[in-house]
Amino acid sequence: MKLTAKIKLLPTSEQAQNLLDTLVRANQACNALSEMAWENKQFKQFGLHKLAYYPIKEQFGLSAQMIVRCIAKVVDAYKLDKKTKRELRPTGAIAYDSRILSYNTKKKTASIWTLTGREAIPYVGGEHNEDLLKFQQGESDLLYRKGKWFLLATCDVPDEQTFRIDSILGVDLGIVDLATDSDGQRFAGSEIRKYRKKRSAIRASVQAKKNAKASKSTIKNTRRLLKRISKRERTTSTIINHTISKRLVEKAQSSGRGIALENLKGIRDRTVPRLRKKQRSEHSSWPFFQLRQFIAYKAQLAGVPLVIVPPAYTSKTCHECNHLGHRSGKSFICTNCGNRCDADHNGARNIAAVGASVTWPENSTLYCALHRC
């Protein structure tokens, strides 16, 4: 599995200046390459390399491999749209490969090429990222952000062998409780809902100032504030999603179960238009797709089978008698057998049942896990 390790570099002031000079020079070369590609309508890597390699090397004094990486960056930039000339930021990220970057995981240093030669720079990344570096393979992006330096390293982490399971842990994703499993355990409920409402109110207040008849400086400052608020919210939601996904996967792994999730692709487009205006921000403000991605990759790393099931009627069907009932908010009532329970728990029980009953091809991972191949 391909994962990214985020490593923070700790350069001296001199090393930091060398990195900045190298980054700026490389992006200047990228803009020159973009100009040549645009004028000659040459957007293929081989063709652009043949056309621009020697002129760029002579003009900018970069190493051979750095020029190759700059050409690759420009070609990637034109892959999405060849109708617009690309201009790259002066301090945009530049990819390094194994010829111009290496890691020493014992000494925790990165040997990186700069305009003045190789620099051995110490790094920190936390236990998780440093463990990932053991599987580093391919490119690493050198990133400069607010005076700090990072390396985003591509790591090819081997998957754990899928273990044998006896049952499925169903997980229902919701608005009040972000996740509820088929055991009835809830994850990030009322406190997170209060947080989301508070942040929504703050955004609305700031947005109102932006939309009012204000000076250009006020509008500019408001945009900056909205950007900071958005970044803070993304960071918080990412941390919470990591925590929930980790707990779910550990629970499934320790109990010898697989995980079943609903396929909620496009649900926001279907549900948000039907909601009142005050409800829309709450339904749209949480990255549920990110949570599903985190559960998926953590499950794969842990060897926990994961199945995605259709969402139709999982929240309206009684898990006891399989008849359609009535759901109102967090409450579910079955009109057939009289079963009363938490609606999300009922949905999770149904998701688990559907996940365990799906017929899979005989060569699939989940089939082998359920049938002890």
Automatic annotation (TrEMBL):
One Pfam family recorded for the sequence: Cas12f1-like_TNB
Domain (Cas12f1-like TNB): residue spans on this chain: 288-351
Alphabetically ordered keywords of this record: DNA-binding
PANTHER family on file: RNA-GUIDED DNA ENDONUCLEASE RV2885C-RELATED, TRANSPOSASE
Protein name per its UniProtKB record: Transposase
Gene Ontology MF annotations: DNA binding
Cross-referenced InterPro entries: Cas12f1-like_TNB, RNA-guided_DNA_endo/Transpos
